[in-house]
Specification:
The structure holds two protein chains of two kinds. By secondary structure, chain A is mainly beta. Chain A is built from three helices and 18 strands. By secondary structure, chain B is mainly alpha-helical. Chain B has one domain. In chain B, helix 4 packs across helix 6 and helix 5 runs antiparallel to helix 6. The longest helix of chain B is centred in the N-terminal third of the chain and has 33 residues. Chain B starts with a helix and ends with a helix. The chains are: A mainly beta, B mainly alpha. The interface between A and B is large, with 80 and 61 residues.
């Protein structure tokens, strides 16, 4: 979409005259402000500006973004060392585009880990509520977007890009996921990020961020600063990158990681890899996923079927990590996904974990669904 | 007891969703099989590397018949950008209404750090 420079919300007239009528108006504003306080005035002006910004004209009326409610729902059952878990998950996402350069986005997560309790029949568990992100984005120019609020910590690729149940290929989290993402997978602060074509052969993407300490559940976060940078080579469909973070509390340590995504041109294959290292532990995971679309029989079914495997290792660090395995661990998983449509997926996998704390089997079976609901006229041609 | 009710409710909801989606899918497959032109275009637009030949692309494919020749290179470029960028993380989505797509693409510009040009071409491709 091309920018319509004449309709930017910052355009102001240079002619300014103070007439008696304007003076009376300004006086009444000052009086009103004295009654409701500065914060109240700012809130009212802000509320008044939102519909004005929403009402801005764009070049193509059909392509003017509309607020939407999207997200995913999943029903996952797993057997972890013989214990059955039932996990209904719902993650609604609200997107409110404002004008041509602003976006408010928020995602909440409602998840219940239901287990069988001794002496009681059925499955029981409490709903865990969490605000994954609630951020205001300002697209400053083609190189930078500024985000403030609560955002997913951009350390590695899994937390920010692959976490939702409808996206992830295997429903279990990688062992190293808790490394570098904070106490609730999110940060609270400010972030600058962007992606641009550096050369015709490759794109560069980057993120730098600062997060402050918050101890209020469910919006808690750690105090740290960090960044991530990556190079994407479209011709090879290869992305490689690295992450860095400096913890500004507790042991004030450095964390770093690397990631890669490769989709070979000749095969319906995705290969994802991630490595992370911190004082609390280090490890990696490697996840190939292959679609059976090249098989010459049952074409309609085969192109919807995906075989996935993941091998991962975790090594304990100098310090204990709350959510990290307490001992060196290896884990192999194998799974099958079947896409009824792109938003509805049946998923199952089997895994075996090897650890000095004891080996165990992990089974998972589930159904995930992704939905999109416009919260206004969608511009569809009926 | 409350947990059991929640369990039954979730199972029923997911079964309903699955049934609805499968029925929708069948209806679309039947519709698409009626048009041999669309099927040919669909095959032409398919991506053998990803196996992503969703029947939802049929309306867009049929519209492509009417697009002018000057729009074709941009459309092809948009499709290529779409496959390179969107498919890196998730299954390519089906077509949404234009204004919904505009919001989704802006969201992805921030989240997936799409370039300015990627955003413009993908939006054009997905709303044609």
């Amino acid at each position: 979409m091309q920018k319509n420079e004449t309709n930017l919300p910052f355009a102001v007239s240079h002619r300014f005259e103070v007439t008696p009528r304007l003076a009376r108006f300004l006086f009444s504003v000052v009086q009103f402000q004295a009654r409701i306080g500065l914060a109240g005035l700012v809130a009212i002006v802000g509320l008044a500006l939102v519909p004005a910004a929403l009402a801005q004209e764009t070049r193509d009326e059909d392509e003017k973004p509309v607020p939407i409610l999207q997200g995913s729902a999943g029903f996952i059952t797993s057997f972890d060392a013989g214990d059955a878990h039932v996990d209904p998950i719902a993650t609604p996402v609200v997107l409110v585009p404002v004008g041509e350069r602003w976006l408010f986005e928020s995602r909440a997560n409602f998840e219940t880990d239901m287990v069988q309790l001794p002496g009681r029949s059925g499955f029981h568990g409490q709903v865990e509520k969490q605000v994954d992100y609630a951020q205001l984005d300002f697209i400053a120019n083609k190189y930078a977007t500024i985000s403030v609020g609560r955002f997913l910590t951009p350390f590695g690729i899994y937390n920010e890009r692959l976490y939702p149940v409808w996206i992830r290929n295997l429903q279990s989290d990688p062992l190293i996921l808790p490394v570098g993402i904070g106490p609730s997978n999110s940060s609270t602060g400010v972030m600058v990020r962007g992606g641009f074509k550096a050369r015709p052969q490759f794109d560069i993407n980057y993120t730098v961020y600062f997060s402050t300490l918050l101890t209020t559940t469910p919006v808690d976060s750690d105090r740290f600063a960090g960044g991530r940078a990556g190079i994407f080579i479209p011709r090879a469909r290869l992305e490689i990158g690295g992450s860095f973070q400096h913890l500004l509390q507790q042991e004030r340590s450095n964390l770093f990681g690397f990631h890669a995504i490769w989709q070979p041109m000749a095969l319906p294959l995705d290969i994802r890899w991630e490595y992370a290292r911190s004082k609390r532990g280090s490890g990696y995971w490697l996840e190939p996923a292959y679609k059976l679309s090249q098989l010459p029989f049952l074409r309609n079914e085969m192109r919807r079927t995906q075989l996935v495997a993941r091998y991962q290792q975790f090594f304990t660090g100098q310090l204990a990590g709350d959510e990290l395995p307490p001992a060196n661990t290896k884990q192999f998983e194998f799974g099958v996904n079947y896409y009824f449509i792109d938003g509805l997926k049946f998923t199952t996998n089997y895994g075996r974990q090897f650890s000095s704390m004891g080996n165990k089997n992990i089974w998972t079976l589930g159904l995930t669904y992704r939905f999109v609901v416009p919260l206004g006229p969608d511009g569809g041609r009926r | 007891m409350k947990g059991n009710w929640m369990l039954f409710f979730c199972l029923a909801a997911m079964t309903f969703l699955a049934g609805t989606a499968v029925a929708q899918e069948r209806a679309k497959s039947e519709k698409s099989s009626k048009s041999s032109d669309d099927a040919q275009l669909l095959a032409a637009c398919s991506d053998p590397a990803n196996g992503n030949t969703w029947p939802q692309k049929t309306p867009r494919a049929s519209q492509a018949n009417h697009s002018t020749s000057s729009e074709q290179p941009e459309r092809a470029e948009g499709e290529q950008r779409f496959r390179e960028n969107c498919g890196r993380c998730h299954q390519p989505p089906h077509k949404f209404p234009p204004r919904v797509m505009a919001s989704a693409v802006r969201h992805m510009r921030v989240r997936a750090m799409l370039t300015d040009e990627d955003m413009r071409l993908i939006l054009k491709y997905m709303t044609q």
